Amino acid sequence: MSTQEPNRERTDKHELILEAAIRVFAQKGFSGARISDVAEAAGVADGTIYLYFKNKEDLLLTIFEEKMDLLLAGLRQALEGVEDPLDRVRTFAHYHFRQVRDHRELAEVLQIELRLSNKFLKEYRPEKLWTYLGIFADMIRAGQEQGTIRTDVDPFMAMWAFFGAMDEMSMQFILARHRKFSLDAAADTVANIFIRGLSKESA
Amino acid sequence: MSTQEPNRERTDKHELILEAAIRVFAQKGFSGARISDVAEAAGVADGTIYLYFKNKEDLLLTIFEEKMDLLLAGLRQALEGVEDPLDRVRTFAHYHFRQVRDHRELAEVLQIELRLSNKFLKEYRPEKLWTYLGIFADMIRAGQEQGTIRTDVDPFMAMWAFFGAMDEMSMQFILARHRKFSLDAAADTVANIFIRGLSKESA
Amino acid sequence: MSTQEPNRERTDKHELILEAAIRVFAQKGFSGARISDVAEAAGVADGTIYLYFKNKEDLLLTIFEEKMDLLLAGLRQALEGVEDPLDRVRTFAHYHFRQVRDHRELAEVLQIELRLSNKFLKEYRPEKLWTYLGIFADMIRAGQEQGTIRTDVDPFMAMWAFFGAMDEMSMQFILARHRKFSLDAAADTVANIFIRGLSKESA
Amino acid sequence: MSTQEPNRERTDKHELILEAAIRVFAQKGFSGARISDVAEAAGVADGTIYLYFKNKEDLLLTIFEEKMDLLLAGLRQALEGVEDPLDRVRTFAHYHFRQVRDHRELAEVLQIELRLSNKFLKEYRPEKLWTYLGIFADMIRAGQEQGTIRTDVDPFMAMWAFFGAMDEMSMQFILARHRKFSLDAAADTVANIFIRGLSKESA
DNA sequence: AATGAATGAGCTTTCATTCAT
DNA sequence: AATGAATGAAAGCTCATTCAT
Fold this sequence. Notes:
The first copy, chain A, is mainly α.
């Protein structure tokens, strides 16, 4: 499987730098990280980074863009075959927290650093994030049409509430670092609250 | 001349600088704001700021400390006389969103600039925020004891979920700036979801 | 005379830096000179330069602007009382070369470095230089009206030719550095050629 | 395959790069031009330039050396058959300005970028330029021996004055770019001034 | 207490040059 | 001979902080 790719070394320099950047940004923060830190972590010269990325900010934005694509694809796959809107909500929560657990440093960068950036939040429109969350809003709408979800809830409002709840718990997980914190329990907690909170009738 | 007002002058300047810092940080972001910007906004010399605050970061932390004290006091007052845990949840939500609306710049600083700061989250322990949110956890515990709230929910988990939901909606409100966004509707949405989501039996 | 100025030290920092810059630019060239070289030569910190000048280029342009003002004032004074256009030509030449001799480093900067700058020549309009040279063109016109100077010569063309001749000889003087090179002889040579070359009738 | 044309290929690429460099240097200036700009303009890789030239400066110096050879050869040819020293002066002026007009980009590089360079003037001895101008000094000497040119003029001084006058007018022509500026008129103006200015008796 | 001129460490980015292929 | 990816030194500029007045 891996023997087939002769020039992976070469192609991977983009990848190499990106992964190094995730590690460094997670550890030192975006503004606290120097380009030379990223270069060192990637094992390349400072200037090399500029052959692959326009500037420091482009590095951050590329992390967002590329990783969100993967996240999005993974989410869609995870939701495949799950029909019931409320089941989909639970699946979404579990998927999200599993990603946070499996890609802790990436999560840290996406959450803390990316959202910190004034530029990111105010000038750059994180379309990919909206697409990701939009899937949740769509679930709500579907449930409303099917009659299983209350219609007095604005899907957008619910979407932000859901995302915020997950995000904050992820943040606490990241900050807790080595302490007890079950992301599966977190997923269930969020899922249960929202499923009951949004359902037309609680069983 | 100055003997009559022993420390009014001092207190005023402390306050003056702090309020200026909130305005400037909200507008330019913490790292984007220069000390000289704050000084200018406060109508004092750059050096004067260092007579009242240790450094730039101290300014940010002091904003957090002092404003959280006020927020906390306000929250306790708002909850006074509200006995039922689930009613208290709704009151909390309304209080929180009202503060965001009435002190938008402060909210912007606390949320975007401060809470997302690497240093703040990782090194500094935001005790006051925990106290603020702890009040929510206490509500849950009270409800569980009274039998109105499900006991399979960890109060801490619920607390973070609740805070995250409110926080994210506040963030969207701040980012939306001049567009339609009713914070009262937001408060009700969050309150309804959590009240139903946490209740033992839905009415 | 000098005891009357109490805060010269303070006011002179602008001057101090400017003079240091002239020395450094003359020696290392504009692009070869580092800001830190100028700072060191002026005995101030790097950052101090930016309190008085916008950037490196501003330093160069300010040298030009301020020194041209002095040159211009001096030229006007030197020409005072000299009525005959052809006499004025000779006076101009002598004045110019005397300045080059007395302010060799400044001359070097103005000639070599300032004119080298693409920006200076193509974007910045050296109005002061034109004013300086315009005085020569005016002499020609006056002589043409009085009938002492040939009317088939375009004053502008003559002006550039005159300036070029002086400039090149100044350049050679600067480059010659420690060798024999009489600027007075140079002034007379140029003056003689142009006076004879421009006169209606040679005596 | 390559045995038939031993060094055509090589010469072509040398030439190719040199011509590209002239275009690029004229447009962006020497320091503003990147090696990669020259490489792109020449249609070769960056590294290839270093197979033909030692470094960036060598490129500039080679332009000077090779083009001055051509200029010199052309001047000698233009002067062939022109015997009278004063006629030769006029011929020189016309030849010079014609070259500026016909090789504007080269002129721009030689004058602005090269001649004004600190390094060029101070460290590198532009022998070829001296040879070119020496021809003018020789005219003066010849005229002085024949009795048609004043003997109180130092040929070297006159040479620099003449060159400076032509150079400055060329510079104005280059800077004027698209505006009216007759180089023939310029040539006549300079020639007339110097011929009259240097002649023993004006006709 | 207040000032604000002065400091100088710190960092992103550019680009001439090299060298493995 | 030719390539062009990689290098890494170099420097302009900013701004938090200090301190003499």
